[in-house]
């Protein structure tokens, strides 16, 4: 790269092998000319609320790839620790998972310049400890500003390189999410997340019939013709399809213009600079979070009753609660419990999952 103004260039990659997915990707392919000869590849994991982003991170850190991985997690609410608690603490993950930083207080795409860049810089002070970084955005994040920070921030620019944007899509709910109201502009978060993706995981395929999946693939291609679309259940995907892709370059931003709708398109085509990217940042201000804390261990029967009433008997909640998750300390139990619920248009089964969590 000649100067700070230039867009970083990616080196053309050899074709991705069709192996069994457990081989370590070839990191030599990730080197950008003229910058740090060994930048740390960053994979940005995005996707609407409850699509399966944490499930994907668990799949990656439990995989046999030989990478040491650092993770940045972003909570939409102020409550730290839930995302981390939902991550596997399996033995196989212990080697891979080197560092976790959690960002609370909103969405990293809204505070790119402060929280996100700062967290990444802090992480980079220990860069000898890991080979690769995963960043999980909130379900309402626009990946654009986060991705852009990786190559427009002077401090970070040479030390890291964006390897790929991976968007997890909930096959059961994506049609509803794509139809959701836009932010202040013409596209909503679900559309943005697909438009920016290098790889789209069409997840939760166990919940949808084949013909619907085919239609969804066509719809996703219509939003982003350049993305690889991979069907998954529980985000189970060969890791060489995700890591070591080195697929980010300036043409990605131009390709985005085709994916976004007319009004956003003119902005996207010039989106090589920060100002343009900020203009793409359209957020749904109607969505917020509520965090509840119990000072004492909870009575599980009462919690279940409260949740049933809230989710099934309150008309407004049926429509308006997109996602619930939490970690519960339960009376009479020495194990922590995980609470998971994802809004479904036509739930096939109870939306609530409560499971014993292995960790104390
Ligand atoms: N049936 C089914 N459930 C899945 C699949 N993948 C994930 N889930 C479940 O979907 C719920 C949400 O998964 P998460 O991985 O927490 O989703 P997320 O995108 O990280 O959620 P947020 O961070 O809250 O946006 C959990 O209960 C998962 O167990 C799948 O392929 N099929």
UniProtKB/TrEMBL annotation:
Top-level taxonomic group: Eukaryota
GO MF: GTP binding; hydrolase activity
One GO cellular component term: cytoplasm
Residues in CobW C-terminal domain copies: 288-345
Residue spans crossing the bilayer: none
Cross-referenced InterPro entries: CobW-likC_sf (IPR036627), CobW-like_C (IPR011629), CobW/HypB/UreG_nucleotide-bd (IPR003495), P-loop_NTPase (IPR027417), Zinc-reg_GTPase_activator (IPR051316)
Statement: the UniProt record of this protein carries the keyword Hydrolase: yes
Pfam families according to UniProt: cobW, CobW_C
Keywords: Chaperone, GTP-binding, Hydrolase, Nucleotide-binding, Zinc
Region span, Disordered: 1-36
Substrates-to-products reaction catalysed: GTP + H2O = GDP + phosphate + H(+)
Residue ranges constituting the CobW/HypB/UreG nucleotide-binding domain according to the UniProt record: 41-230
Secreted is among the record's keywords: no
Coiled-coil zones: none
Sequence similarity: Belongs to the SIMIBI class G3E GTPase family. ZNG1 subfamily.
PANTHER family reported in the protein's UniProt record: COBW-RELATED, ZINC-REGULATED GTPASE METALLOPROTEIN ACTIVATOR 1A-RELATED
Protein name per Swiss-Prot or TrEMBL: Uncharacterized protein
Source organism phylogeny: Eukaryota, Viridiplantae, Chlorophyta, core chlorophytes, Trebouxiophyceae
């Amino acid at each position: 790269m000649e100067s700070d103004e230039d867009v970083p260039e990616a080196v053309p990659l050899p074709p991705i092998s069709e192996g069994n997915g457990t081989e370590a990707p070839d990191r030599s392919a990730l080197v950008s000319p003229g910058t740090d000869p060994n930048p740390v590849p960053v994979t940005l994991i995005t996707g609407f609320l409850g699509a399966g982003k944490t499930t994907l991170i668990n799949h990656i850190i439990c995989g046999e790839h030989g990478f040491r991985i650092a993770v940045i997690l972003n909570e939409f609410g102020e409550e730290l620790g839930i995302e981390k608690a939902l991550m596997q603490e399996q033995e196989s993950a212990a080697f891979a998972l080197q560092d976790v930083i959690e960002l609370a207080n909103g969405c990293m795409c809204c505070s790119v310049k402060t929280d996100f860049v700062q967290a990444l810089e802090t992480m980079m002070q220990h860069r000898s400890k890991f080979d690769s970084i995963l960043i999980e955005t909130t379900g309402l994040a626009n990946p654009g500003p986060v991705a852009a920070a990786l190559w427009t921030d002077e401090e970070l620019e040479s030390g890291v390189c964006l390897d790929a944007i991976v968007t997890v899509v909930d096959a059961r709910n994506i049609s509803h999410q794509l139809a959701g109201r836009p932010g202040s502009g013409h596209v909503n978060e679900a559309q943005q997340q697909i438009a920016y993706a290098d790889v789209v995981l069409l997840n939760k395929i166990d919940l949808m019939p084949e013909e619907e999946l085919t239609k969804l693939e066509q719809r996703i291609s219509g939003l982003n013709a350049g993305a690889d679309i991979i069907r998954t259940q529980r985000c189970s995907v060969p890791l060489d399809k995700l890591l070591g892709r080195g697929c980010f370059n300036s043409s990605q931003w131009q390709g985005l213009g085709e994916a976004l709708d007319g009004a956003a398109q003119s902005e996207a085509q010039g989106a090589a600079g920060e100002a343009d990217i900020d203009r793409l940042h359209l957020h749904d201000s109607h969505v917020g979070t509520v965090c509840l804390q119990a000072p004492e261990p909870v009575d599980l029967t009462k919690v279940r009753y409260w949740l049933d009433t809230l989710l099934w008997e309150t008309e407004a909640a049926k429509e308006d609660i997109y996602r619930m998750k939490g970690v519960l300390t339960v009376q009479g139990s020495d194990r922590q419990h995980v609470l998971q619920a994802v809004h479904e248009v036509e739930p096939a089964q109870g939306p609530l999952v409560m499971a014993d969590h292995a960790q104390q």
